[in-house]
């Protein structure tokens, strides 16, 4: 039974880490998108505006929702991969001790 308790605890920790990391990645993505117009102003370019126009999807709400969902899913996938790699590294370190 002690093995099951550790497994449940590890699953809860990994789930919490994944959710937290996903939220952080979404926040960073939003902050980066907010910085694009300032980057255009500093550099004199217009690629930041082009990215924002693409993400705005010509004002079509359904397309905007699709883009938002895709960005959130991408953040979730990155978080899952990061947690998986971190778990493997920690297990590898523990086995070398």
What would your notes on this structure say?
The chain has one domain (about 1-95). The model has no long low-confidence stretch (mean pLDDT about 85). Helices cover about 90% and strands about 0% of the residues. The protein is elongated. The longest helix has about 40 residues, at about 1-45. Helix 1 packs across helix 2 and helix 1 packs across helix 3. It is mainly alpha-helical.
Task: Provide a quick synopsis of the model.
This protein has helices at residues 2-43, 47-56, 61-96. With 97 residues, the chain is mostly helical.
Distance between the termini: 26 Å
Number of helices: 3
Low-pLDDT residue intervals, each spanning 5 or more residues? none
Q: Structural class of the secondary elements?
A: mainly alpha
The overall number of domains is 1
Sequence of secondary-structure elements: HHH
Shape, per Cα inertia axes: elongated
Task: Report on the biggest sheet.
Answer: none
What's the total count of β strands?
A: 0
Summarize the amount of helix as a percent range. over 70%
Approximate strand percentage: under 5%
Q: Tell me, rounded to a whole number, the average pLDDT.
A: 86
Radius of gyration: 19 Å
């Amino acid at each position: 039974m002690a093995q099951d308790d550790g497994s449940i605890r590890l699953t809860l920790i990994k789930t919490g880490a994944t959710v937290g990391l996903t939220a952080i990645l979404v926040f960073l993505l939003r902050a980066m998108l907010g910085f694009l117009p300032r980057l255009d102003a500093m550099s004199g370019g217009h690629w930041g505006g082009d990215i924002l126009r693409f993400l705005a999807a010509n004002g079509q709400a359904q397309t905007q929702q699709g883009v938002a969902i895709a960005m959130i899913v991408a953040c979730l996938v990155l978080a899952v991969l990061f947690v998986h790699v971190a778990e493997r590294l920690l297990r590898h370190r523990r086995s070398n001790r």
